[in-house]
Design brief:
mainly alpha, 12 helices, about 80% helix
Length: about 290
């Protein structure tokens, strides 16, 4: 019986890894389409991203024909996941439009570290001195990417990108908590996407910028990629704890760097590369530490 449980746990772990790597690819692809959509307000791009996700998540729920029931105790977590998720998306979109794809990606990928901090307060998971040290060093790595100098034009979008990583990290902590109540992942995605659309609609209307058919196509592809990434990352964290698999999420940096170089001719500077190395090193260090525990 114990061997069966161990095998089942390992199976879930491996599925979680596969889902997370697939998610990383989709989110990197999403960033490419955001950039290709051109000079449009970040809120407008974010709105389109979530409209597509609403349709896909809604169709998925209808086709599943499963009885949908959401435990009352799960609602606060679902609402907080949506709230912080909106912050994460809008800040990430803003950064993608103004930074190198790889810089925007790594700042957003500070989220697993903040998920560790969030898990301490939200899920009451143990927070060790080692984890605290790893989060602190990773934050220093983030500063190499942000390069906090008010004379730099990239400082503000980089700071916004880091804020997006914080929002995403807290959102994933609440996502994990919602999952502990048995809430369906597809419903969480549908609620989050619908909540985002309602929140973004006033900004979309007030600051609407006319779009070409090409821009509309890019935004639809952005939404499809984002929905794919969202389904995959939700499935990943439902199968395994973030502390065990989150390191694989950093493959998005590899995908984003490759896309940025081959499509946009972007090359990160030395300080950013140092920051990447520090953050990824901390992610790998934390991964092996948690696996050992």
């Amino acid at each position: 019986m114990e061997n069966v449980k161990t095998n089942e746990k390992e199976k879930k772990y491996h599925l979680g890894v596969i889902y997370l790597i697939t998610s990383a690819f989709f989110f990197a692809l999403m960033a490419v389409f955001i950039r290709l959509a051109g000079d449009l307000p970040s809120m407008q791009k974010a709105f389109f991203r979530n409209v597509v996700a609403v349709v896909i998540a809604g169709v998925t729920l209808i086709k599943s024909k499963e009885k949908l029931s959401v435990p009352k105790q799960a609602w606060p977590s679902i609402i907080m996941r949506a709230t912080f998720g909106v912050v994460g998306i809008v800040c990430n979109f803003y950064a993608i439009d103004r930074l190198l794809l790889s810089d925007a990606s790594i700042l957003n990928k500070m989220s697993p570290f903040f998920a560790v901090v969030g898990s301490y307060f939200i899920l009451k998971e143990k927070f060790t001195v080692f984890q605290g040290l790893a989060v602190f060093i990773a934050f220093i790595g983030g500063m190499f990417v942000v390069k906090p100098s008010f004379s730099s034009m990239d400082f503000f979008p980089a700071a916004i990108g880091l804020l997006g990583g914080i929002g995403a990290g807290l959102a994933y902590s609440f996502l994990r908590k919602a999952g502990t109540y048995g809430t369906k992942g597809s419903f969480v995605i549908l609620f989050f996407s619908g909540f985002s659309c309602i929140f973004l609609l006033p900004f979309f209307i007030i600051n609407y910028t006319p779009m070409s058919w090409y821009q509309i196509l890019m935004l639809l592809l952005c939404g499809a990629s984002a929905a794919g990434g969202q389904f995959m990352i939700t499935a990943a964290y439902y199968h395994a704890p973030a502390r065990e698999i989150s390191v694989f999420d950093y493959l998005q940096l590899l995908f984003s760097t490759a896309f940025g170089f081959f499509i946009f001719g972007q090359v990160p500077d030395l300080w950013s590369i140092i920051g990447y190395c520090i953050i990824v090193a901390m992610a790998i260090w934390m991964f092996f530490y948690n696996r050992k525990r």
